[in-house]
Amino acid sequence: MSREQQAVARARKAFETGRSKSVEHRIRQLKNLQRLFTEKQSVISAAVKKDLNKSEVGTQLYETLGLEGELNTAINHLKEWAAPRPVEKNLLTISDTVYIKPEPLGVVLIIGAWNYPWAVTIQPLIGAIAAGNAAVIKPSEVCVHTAKVMEDLLPLYIDKELYPVVTGGVPETQELLRQRFDHIFYTGNSVVGKLIMEAAAKNLTPVTLELGGKSPCYIDKNCDLTIACRRVAWGKYTNCGQTCIAPDYILCEPSIQDRVIEEVKKAIKEFYTDNPKTCPDYGRIINQRHFKRIMNMLEGSTVAAGGDNEESDCYIAPTVLRDVKPEAKVMQEEIFGPLLPILSVSGLDEAIKFINKGEKPLALYCFSSDNKVINRMTDETSSGGFLANDCLVHFSVGSLPFGGVGNSGMGCYHGKYSFDQLSHLRSCLIKKLNMEGVNSMRYPPHTPKKLGWARFFILNSVDLGWVGRMALLAVMAVVAAVVLQTTSVPFKEKSNVHFKPFHQGDSEPIRSASHRTAVSAQWCYQSQYSCDDTCRDPIRWAAQFPSCGGLRQSPINIVSTKVHVNSALPPFNFIGHTNTINITVENKGHSAHFALPQSFRLTGGALPGHYRAAQFHFHWGGNGRPGSEHTIDGEQFPMELHIVHIKEPYGSLAEAEHDMAGIALLAFLFEESSDDNPHLDSLIASLGRVKNNGSSTVIPNFRLSDIIPSDKDLFSYYRYVGSMTTPGCEQAVAWTLFHRTLPISSRQLDAITQQCRFWTGQPMTDIFRPTQPLDGRVVYRSKAGAALGGVMHWWVGVSSVLLGRTGLIH
Ligand SMILES: NC(=O)c1ccc[n+]([C@@H]2O[C@H](COP(=O)([O-])OP(=O)(O)OC[C@H]3O[C@@H](n4cnc5c(N)ncnc54)[C@H](O)[C@@H]3O)[C@@H](O)[C@H]2O)c1
Ligand SMILES: CC(C)=CCC/C(C)=C/CC/C(C)=C/C=O
C-alpha cells in the first residue's frame, strides 16, 4: 500500500468508528485548532515568511485572523447547524414531521494551494470537521516551509487518524486522486481543476472547485479616484498580486487613465514606500517558475509605473501597465502577480460587453458613485462574487458564500456554507400510520375528482402556524371523507414513531449558552435599571431585539369578560411529571432556571404536536410587591410559574421560533396563603445556593407533580398565542394560563425574593415584564367539563372556532 493509500484507509477506518459524528468531538477538534493558532502563531508566520515573504502581521491579518473567525463561528453555531431543520410543508404532508437532517459525507480530500496556504487549506478543513467528516489534507508542495509545518503541527492538535496530512507534489496528489473519497475540495488553477473533476468522476465523487481567473475591475469616471485607486492598489499588490480575487485588470475611459495611474502610484508609495523591495509589507513571488511566467507577460505592454525586478530574490515591483490591448499577452491568462494592466473602454456598455466576452470571473469589482452604474453591472454580468467600491473584503464576511461560477469554480464555502457544502442534506418525512383516508386521493383507481384534490393538496404549501394547521387538518379529515365517500379510517391516538431527543444532555435546550450570554449583557428589568446604566429596560428592549416590538407579545392582561369560550380546548396529558428526579437550578442572571429532563413531555390541550420539557422558572416581585407577568382583569398576582416546553422535533428556540406554536408555555399564578406551601421549601432553599449569576446546584428527589396539580385537575385554562417574555421575545409561544392558582405564604415569598442577585449584582427583585397590548388577538378559555365527541367532530369543532377567529393567527 502506498503512503497515500494508507492515509485514506486509516481516515476511512476512523470515520467508520463514528466518532467524527459526535457534535462534542467536532467542537473539541475545532477548539484544538483554535489552540494551534494561539500557541504556534510564530512558527506559522516564520514558515509563511520564508515561502512568500509575508510579514508576521500580514500572515495574521490575511490568513489566521479569518481562520479564528471561522472557528469561532463554527464552534458557536455547530449545534444549530447540525440540528434537524424543519421545512415548509404542502397540505398533503401537513400532519407529518418533515425536516432536513444534515449528515456527514464521509472522507473528504482537501487539496490546498500555496498563495494563502493556511487560509485555503484549513478553512475547508474547519467545514469538514464541523460537518462530521474525516479529511485527508494535502497542502500545496509549492509553499515548501508551510507544508512541512502543517505536516508537523496538525497531528499534534487534531485527531491524526481522522484528519491525516499527506504531503507531496503532483505524483502524490495523483495517487490520492486514485483513491475513493466522498468529496474532493480543491483550491488551485482551472487547468488542474479539470483533472480533479475527471478523477472524481470515476467514483461519482462530488467536488468543490475553488479556482481563479481574471477578475475585472471597472472604474467609472464618476467616482472619487483617489479612494478607488487606493483600494484597487491594496487589492492588487497584497501578497504581490498572488490572490485569487485580486483585481486582475482595470477597465476605464481613456480620459481618466492618467489620473488612475497617478493615484495608483501614490497609493503604492503610501503602502510600500519609494522602495517596495525593502518594505516588510511587500511580498515576493513564490518561486522562479512563477517569476518567469509573470515577467513573460510584460512582453508587448507599456510600463507606466514600477517594472523593477530581481529574479534571484523573486522580486517584482508593483507595476502598472497603460493602454493595454485585449490581445496583449498579459490579458491572455490570470496574472497572479503584481502587474496591473489598464484597458480603455468607451464607458459602462463596452465594459460590460468586454467582461461578458471572457470567462465568468471569481470576483468582479466596480467603482462608481452612481448606483445606476453599480446596478447595471450586477444585473448584466455574472461572477463568483461582486464588490462595489472595494476589493477583497467579501472574503472576510463569513455569512457570504465564497466560490466561483463557470470557469472560476463550483460550490462555495465559509461559515455555514462550508458546513452545508460538506454535508449531505438528507430529506426526512416521518408520517404516522393514521389519517389513511387522505391518501386515497393518490391511490388507484385514479379519477379526475381525486386528481383535483391532489392538485389542491400538493400544490399548496402552508406556513400558517399551528392554528391554521389544525384548521387545515380538520378540512383534510373532511376531504378524506368526501374523497373516500366511505367512513374514514379512525385516528390512532398514539404514533408509532418516536423521536430520539436532540441534544441529549443539554440542560437548557431552549436557548444556547452563547445566545444567553450575548443577550444578558444587553437587557435588564426595570428594577435593575438606573439612569447611568447602559443596559436596556423593558420599554427599550425593542430597540435591540425587534421582536420585542411585535404584535404578538407577552405577557398580557386577560379581561375575563372578553375571552371566548371554546369547547375544543381539551385537557392535557403530562408524561413523566410524577417521576422523582434530581434537577439542576442555575442563576441565569435575570432569573433562576430549573432544568427539566426531555423525558418530561406534554401532549393534548389542543397543542399541535408533542412537546418536550426544557425548564421552569418563576417571576416574582419584592418587598410585598406582586410579581406575576400575566394579570387578570388588571390584577397582578404575587408570583407566576412558567414551565417551558419545546415542540418536537425542534432542539432549540432558534429552530422553534418560526413556528407560532414552537414553544408551549404553561403558566400558573400564585395566590397568597396563610400557611406555607411545603412543596416549595426545597426550591426556596436551592435559590439560596445560587445567589450569584452562573452559580448552580442540584435539588435531589424532585417531583414536578408536587408543585403543580395533576393534569386531570387542569382542564380550565386560558389560551392565546404570544411570545417569550424575555429578549429576544420570540413570537413562537402557545400560552396556557391555568385557572387553578398555587398557594404560597408571605414568608415564602419574602424568602424567594431575597435570595438571588442579578448579573449586575443587585438584588433580583421585580423580575417581570409589564403587560403588552393584545393587538387584536383573541384569548380563549377552555370550557371545563365539555363533552368531547369523536375525533372527526373534535377537528371540525376546532377548525370552525379557529377559522372564524382570524385574530388568533395574526
Ligand atoms: N478560489 C480560491 O479560493 C482560490 C484560492 C487560492 C488560489 N486560487 C487559484 O489557484 C491558482 C494558483 O494556485 P496553483 O494552481 O498555482 O496552486 P498549486 O500549484 O499549489 O496547485 C494547487 C494544488 O493542486 C495540486 N496539483 C498541481 N498540479 C496537479 C496535477 N497535475 N494533478 C493533481 N494535482 C495537482 C498541487 O499539489 C496543489 O496541492 C490561481 O489560479 C488562483 O486564482 C483560487
Ligand atoms: C483583511 C481583510 C479585511 C480582508 C482579507 C482579504 C484577503 C487578502 C483575502 C485573501 C483571500 C484568499 C485566501 C484568496 C485566495 O487566493
Automatic annotation (TrEMBL):
Cofactor: Zn(2+)
Membrane topology: Single-pass membrane protein
Main subcellular location: endoplasmic reticulum
Entry EC no(s): 1.2.1.3, 1.2.1.94, 4.2.1.1
Tree of life domain: Eukaryota
Any GO molecular function: zinc ion binding
Gene3D superfamilies associated with the record: Aldehyde Dehydrogenase, Chain A, domain 1, Aldehyde Dehydrogenase, Chain A, domain 2, Alpha carbonic anhydrase
Record-annotated active site: 210
Pfam families noted in UniProt: Aldedh (PF00171), Carb_anhydrase (PF00194)
Domain Alpha-carbonic anhydrase: 521-783
Keywords of the record: Endoplasmic reticulum, Fatty acid metabolism, Glycoprotein, Lipid metabolism, Lyase, Membrane, Metal-binding, Microsome, NAD, Oxidoreductase, Phosphoprotein, Transmembrane, Transmembrane helix, Zinc
Keyword match Endoplasmic reticulum: yes
GO biological process, one term: fatty acid metabolic process
Record localization: Endoplasmic reticulum membrane; Microsome membrane
Catalysed reaction, written as an equation: (2E,6E)-farnesal + NAD(+) + H2O = (2E,6E)-farnesoate + NADH + 2 H(+); dodecanoate + NADH + 2 H(+) = dodecanal + NAD(+) + H2O; heptanal + NAD(+) + H2O = heptanoate + NADH + 2 H(+); 2,6,10,14-tetramethylpentadecanal + NAD(+) + H2O = 2,6,10,14-tetramethylpentadecanoate + NADH + 2 H(+)
GO cellular component: endoplasmic reticulum membrane
InterPro entries: Ald_DH/histidinol_DH (IPR016161), Ald_DH_C (IPR016163), Ald_DH_CS_CYS (IPR016160), Ald_DH_CS_GLU (IPR029510), Ald_DH_N (IPR016162), Aldehyde_DH_dom (IPR015590), Aldehyde_DH_NAD(P) (IPR012394), CA4/CA15 (IPR041874)
Subunit structure: Homodimer.
Entry's family note: Belongs to the aldehyde dehydrogenase family. Belongs to the alpha-carbonic anhydrase family.
Name this protein carries in UniProt: Aldehyde dehydrogenase family 3 member A2
Biological source species: Pogonophryne albipinna
